[in-house]
Amino acid sequence: MSAKSHSLVMLQRDFRHVARNPTSVFNAVLMPVIMLFMFVYVLGDAFSVGVDYIDYATPGMMLLAICYGLGGTAVAVNADMTKGIINRFKVMDVPRHAVLTGKVVASVLTNLIAIAALTGVAFLLGFSPSASFVDWLGVIGLVLLLGFATAWLTVALGLAAKSPETAAFAAVPLIMLPFFSSAIVPADKMGPGIKQFAQYQPFTPIIETLRGFLNGTPQTSDAVTALAWCLGIALVGYLWASATFKKRA
Fold first, then answer.
1. Interatomic CA distance for residues 138 and 62, integer angstroms
2. Separation CA 242–CA 200 (nearest Å)
3. Which of 12, 89, 127, 155 counts the most CB atoms within 10 A of its CB?
4. H or E segment to which residue 6 belongs
5. pLDDT of 100-152, one tens digit each?
6. Three-class SS of residue 170?
7. Is the dihedral of CA 166, 201, 152, 120 positive or negative?
């Protein structure tokens, strides 16, 4: 089999595992939709953000949709490692990159499904973006890049963890980080300390770039910062995952 064929087989295996796991489907696809309902209908009137809250919150919910699926990816990677599945693949002479790439691509595809479902529900709730066709391409490109970057970092966390339970816990900071960004409310409305953290953490410029694209007014400075963070996270995750895989497998 060619390297491409190996990668496709691994992708089919990983995506099938995600689809057959109700907990993974709930966390990756349904939970972001529930969060959108909760923040818009339960808490939306409590926030004054200068625009309809659904328009403000949807970009942040897109990022949350990416992060909520990461725990399942970390657990799946670790389970394959600790149960000896990856070592069996190695004995079968399956290329290393095929095993890892399958996990990453399956995670990205899951993200796209989750964001598509979230966006559809957001439109039903009154979401009215001003984005042009080019702006939507920017949204899709940034979502793909962020999903790719966080997937590699999550694969690295899963490989480094000692058990599936530890792997699930290792992904919690990535899941919680959007709540300390401008996803829910503007950073300027936060208290001292949290405000500065929200302004300089990686997810805030990414969310603001998504928000700018959807409003039809993307800011170059936010876009450059978001791109730099995504590339940096992807590079760290890839190098860490490759080194850990080589050491443990």
1. 14
2. 28
3. 155
4. helix 3-19
5. 888 888 888 888 888 999 999 999 988 999 899 999 999 999 999 999 999 99
6. helix
7. positive
Cα–Cα distance measured from residue 200 to residue 109, given in angstroms and rounded to the nearest whole number:
29
**Model confidence, pTM:** 0.86
Cβ proximity of 106 and 18 under 8 Å: yes
Task: Decide: 60 and 47 in contact? Cβ < 8 Å.
Answer: no
Condensed to tens digits (0 to 9), the pLDDT of residues 206-227 reads 999 999 999 988 888 889 999 9
Residues near 136 by beta carbon (within 8 Å), at least 6 away in sequence? 213
Q: How far is CA 24 from CA 27, 74, 106, 128, 243, in A?
A: 5, 11, 12, 30, 27
Instruction: Identify the CA nearest to 241 among candidates 92, 1, 80.
Output: 80
**CB of 10 closer than 8 Å to CB of 109:** no
